[in-house]
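Lab notebook, design round three. We kept the backbone fixed and only want residue identities now. Task for the bench partner: fill in a sequence for the structure below.
Input structure tokens:
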């Protein structure tokens, strides 16, 4: 589970964000946008780390 935990979490967060954006109104739209922004931010962070040459 250590290897697949974060990808599964990001996938579930994305699915919840998409579903919330489709069926939600008002505050749900804001939560959906946040849920969809988290995987994008994680991907951008990893891309920037790779470009800068920083490793764990």
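Proposed sequence:
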């Amino acid at each position: 589970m250590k290897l697949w935990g974060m990808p599964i979490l990001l996938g579930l967060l994305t699915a919840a964000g998409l579903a919330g954006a489709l069926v939600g109104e008002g505050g749900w739209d804001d939560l959906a946008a946040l849920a969809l922004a988290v995987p994008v931010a994680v991907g951008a962070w990893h891309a920037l780390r790779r470009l800068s040459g920083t490793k764990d």
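Keep this in mind before ordering anything: The helical segments are 5-23, 27-52.
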